[in-house]
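Standup notes, structure subgroup. Blocker cleared on the nicotinamide-adenine-dinucleotide input:
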Amino acid sequence: MSIMVPSKTPALITVGRQALDSALHQLDQAAEHLGLDDGLRTVLATPRRSLTVSVPVRREDGRLDVVQGFRVQHNVSRGPAKGGIRFHPGTDIHEVTALAMWMTWKCALVGIPYGGAKGGVAVDPTRLSTRELERMTRRYVNEILPLIGPEKDIPAPDVGTDEQTMAWIMDTYSVSAGYSVPGVVTGKPTTLGGSLGRSGATSRGVQIATLAALGRAPEGVTVAVQGFGKVGALAAQYLADAGCKVVAVSDITGAVYASASSGGLDIARLRTWASETGGVSGYRHADALPLDELLELDVDVLIPAALEGAITEANAPRVRARLIVEGANGPTTPEADEILTANGATVVPDILANAGGVIVSYLEWVQNMQAYSWSSGEVEVKLRDLMESAFSEVKSMAAARGLTLRQAAHVIGVGRVAEAHQMRGLYP
Ligand code: NAD
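Run returned:
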């Protein structure tokens, strides 16, 4: 039996619904390959806990707004739940569930002792003042307080949240506990127990995965990056540092392009421009490019590092990059995935390519639990070890069983979680 995907009418298909359908499809394929029984498939397809909360926010002008927030723990069979918190107006319970499910397989794939979770608030953080954002964050945390904790569920940054958000979460939780609890979140400022190397960890992992998948020297390899946020900007930087020519990047404000023959983009300069002006648009040392064209450029490597559903069956036939490394979660729909594979492209899947973030989050949590800290060199060695061994396991599994890298990564991740369930048995 295949996993049941709830029925849908076209009017109700949101980005989140599509993401959840993709996640269930990938689970279904892996479960089929592993020969899992129907009961276990249903357990794995269903979140363990799912909480929707209303978050009242007092605005600066005295008005009271109410926004919806979510926290989903998809699976905790291998350890505490772990996953980011997203502030984005399009976030819904389906998207958060899909992201939590991907976290479960990701943690299992890279061999860290966590289950998967995700949180979100359906809000545009750029439309709130800093004080409104702080009040909203603290109230949201208060609403989900019974679920989170260093031994239960540990949030981290995602789209629209950052170190400051994590500091407010840590403080809110600590005030309620009556003492400081740094291990309740990762991706904190280093002054509060954040790990050295965490802010660039996802991007460093994307760089490691890209170089491993390239299988040749990076000098002169052309790269386009969609999304110039926490993951995309530093992934572009690290790949440029390694010798690649990053020729195009985009964010919500626009896309910019500089040909490889002109040396590609100066990423350090562009990062300064984007942080001073709020985006890449208007950068004078490159040409403007229509947003959609970035995905279809004639480059060696394409890195989608923005949101889900960027590569669909509509644009996949026009994607010319031979290597796609998913910095974002769920950027490729299953239909697009089939088209890319049929066209001979290699896709390094999200649960492998962007796992550097949760790996260093885990290292941060270990340091917090021991009240100890490692040097950035120690953190980077451990990150590299875990990323490289996960990459080679996925590659070997794909070659041995004739699978794509995504299928192999899911077979390993889902297989480990299924095994944990089988070993633990069912209570009562
Ligand atoms: P972010 O909010 O820092 O950045 C998101 C970027 O995407 C912004 O630059 C935004 O302008 C851009 N963007 C949004 N829509 C776009 C569009 N249509 N075209 C081009 N650019 C667009 O978020 P982030 O933390 O960098 O996360 C990006 C992705 O990486 C998400 O899928 C997230 O789940 C995933 N991820 C993040 C982490 C992490 O540590 N932050 C870890 C693993 C995976």
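Discussed briefly. The first helix runs from residue 15 to 34.
Next: hand off to the docking folks.
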